[in-house]
Each structure stands twice: as structure tokens, then as C-alpha cells.
Amino acid sequence: MISSPAKVSIIVPIYNAEKYLSLCLESCISQTLRDVEIICVNDGSTDGSQKIVDQFAERDHRIIRVIKENGGLSSARNAGIEAATGGLLLFLDSDDYISENACERVWLETLEAPTDIVVFGTSIFPDKPTANSWMYETLTKIKTKRYWAFEPAVLFSEPGAKPFVWRQVFRKAFLDEHKLRFDEDIKFGEDTVFQLEAFPHASHFAFIEDKLYHYRWYREGSMMAVANADPDSKIEKHIFMLEQITEYWQQQNWIENYGDWYLDWLLDFVMPDIRNLPKQKAEKHLLRLNTLLEKYNLEACWIDEPSPIREAYVKLIRSAKGKKTEKQK
Known about the structure:
Blueprint: E1 8-14, H1 21-29, E2 36-43, H2 49-59, E3 63-68, H3 73-83, E4 88-91, E5 97-98, H4 102-112, E6 117-125, H5 133-140, E7 145-147, H6 152-156, E8 168-171, H7 172-177, H8 190-198, E9 205-216, H9 223-228, H10 231-251, H11 254-275, H12 279-295, H13 308-328
Parallel strand pairs: 1-2, 1-4, 2-3, 6-9
Antiparallel strand pairs: 4-8, 5-9, 6-8, 7-9
Helix pairs in contact: 1-2, 8-10, 10-11, 10-12, 12-13
């Protein structure tokens, strides 16, 4: 273990990742910035992952081993945050890898000016099968830019802000100050929940176009692949996410200030998928959304007239409530 606090803590949650882990850890120990710590959180793996971690730890004293019972990705990341001593936190999934200059690049960026969150670019692999256009647009189109205060455009207009937390670096003192951790009740979409809770608290942001993260976008059996195979279940999990986020935003009084941006994002986030479901399956999700809109009076947030597509979304949500009332009669 290094004798003084690291400049960057790389947090690697690990669960049955023996097939990919060596590439991931090799990219960590090869960083051009030497003053890093590599926190490997074994989240109850049943394969040979821990053996690989132990082998790398023998090669490099900067590897810190955390072994815990299986609790899911959020639980593993939180354990990594608690173990971290670095000024900056970088989250690295165990089937991905980072460029050798990743830590140095983001650390230098934070020396330019005060920075709570750094967002950087991503490259996608493998080439076959080919990722869809949304993924390329979201992950590879980052433009270098700074924000000196939070404004809704940072979170809702910048393609780098959502939905993957592994292409962002957070100042640890910032997370600790606002008691920001991953919600361990969220099993899908935990990154987006974390981002929507963290970004409005921050005041200094750096977006850099450098592609420092290498994302294995396709892997059989991955959480994303499983979720996409069952759209009904995916939407159910997304609405649960929205319920948690909206409650947090209400507690922070952010709905009052940024509610128009938030409502637009909420509808665009979930409604296209709901409209692709058969009507019977869609109805239960629309009813939950109607409850959410009414509970927090979200429609009152719109400052300007909503666009026709958003008006159509709200009309569809209301219609589900009307159908339920008719059935009760």
C-alpha cells in the first residue's frame, strides 16, 4: 500500500470476471501516473477472480484487496469508496480497461481549475457485433468544455453526463460532503440514479474529449443484455429508478428550480419504450407514472408550452388512469 494518500483511486468491482480481469488490472498498473491506488472489491465471486487479483497484488503493492459477500454492483462500489484514500475516484468495470494515461489526464485537468466532476470520452469494443447509433452518439461525442456552476444543461444536454458512471471521475471530498453513495436497492440503472443525485450538488465540471475508457459494450450474460431481453421488466426497473430520483429531488428542492428540465427528461427516458409495449402491459406502467406525476405535481413544472410529443406522452399517461376508473365503475 502506498504511504501517502493517492492522487487517484481506481475502484474495480469484481464478480466472476476471471475471463476479462487480467486486461482490466494490467491497464491499472500500467498508468503513467504512478501515484494511484487500485481498489479491487471482490463481491462474492465464485470463480477464479480472487486468484487473479492476488497474483497482481504480488506484482504491485498499490493494489488493495477488499473481499465481501455478494451485494451487487452498488454495494461493491460503495465498499470501494469507503476504502479509497485518493483525492479523485474513478470507477472501472472489471470487463473493461482504461488508457495508460487516463489517471494522469484527469488529474492534470483538476489542476487547471477547481473540479468536482470530470467527464471523458470512451471507445467501444468489440467491433462485431456493431453497437447501435445511440451508443456511439452517447459515448464518443464528448466535446471539451468547462462549466463553472451547475445548470440543467450540464446534466440533461451534455451527452457525457448520463448514463454510465465509469466515464466520470469524482472528487472524493465532494461525495463525502454531500453523503453521496450508490443506492444499493437499485439493481438496474444505478449509475443514472447516482448521477441525478450528484450533478446538481456539484459546482465545477470539466468535459474532455479524450477517449480514456474502453467499454466492452457486448458480452453475453451481462446485466444490460439480460435487461434488454425483457422490455417489460426493464421498464418496471426504470420507473422504480424514477420514483427514487424524484423523491430525492423533492427533498433537495430541485424540482422547484429545475423541474421543467427534469420532467422533459423523465418522459423521454421511459415513454418511448412504454409505447412499444402491447397495450395491456403498457397500462400498468402508465398508471405508476400517473401516480408519480400527480404526487409531485410535475406538470406544474413546465415553464413554457410543452412540445407536441411531450403533450402526447402526458395524455397517454392520463388515459391509463381514465381506463382504470372506468373498469372500477
